[in-house]
Specification:
Largest sheet: 6 strands, mixed
Distance between the termini: 40 Å
Strand content: over 45%
Helix content: under 10%
Number of helices: 0
């Protein structure tokens, strides 16, 4: 079975940066789309950024120009570099498959809390 473990969250001031990591196991990582999602209290989980097996990326409008998703297939890890953080970025961040053809689609880790506050 697949397993996803997120890390790197924390408390950061507005304008600060964090780098999230998600280590995947249990299946072949390369060629599978991966995504970062987030869920704030009272809100539905939303896609933040996705990266295809070939490296193409997609971002939700609110993070374009601030967040960068990347992957290291040798380490079976996907990253989310978050810059110029805003209080509205506060949420639990999860990784999962991106695209229904990803073997990781629908699998979730425990998430990592990101809190942006002064």
């Amino acid at each position: 079975q697949v397993q996803l473990v997120e890390s790197g969250g924390g408390l950061v001031q507005p304008g600060g940066s964090l780098r999230l990591s998600c280590a995947a196991s249990g299946s072949i990582f390369s060629k599978n789309g991966m995504g970062w999602y987030r869920q704030a209290p009272g809100n539905q989980r939303e896609l933040v950024a996705g990266i295809s097996g070939g490296g193409s990326t997609n971002y939700t409008d609110s993070v374009k120009g601030r967040f960068i998703i990347s992957r290291d297939d040798a380490k079976a890890t996907v990253y989310l570099q978050m810059n110029s953080l805003k209080p509205e970025d506060t949420a639990v961040y999860y990784c999962s498959g991106w695209g229904t053809d990803s073997v990781f689609f629908g699998s979730w880790g425990h998430g990592t809390q990101v809190t942006v506050s002064s």
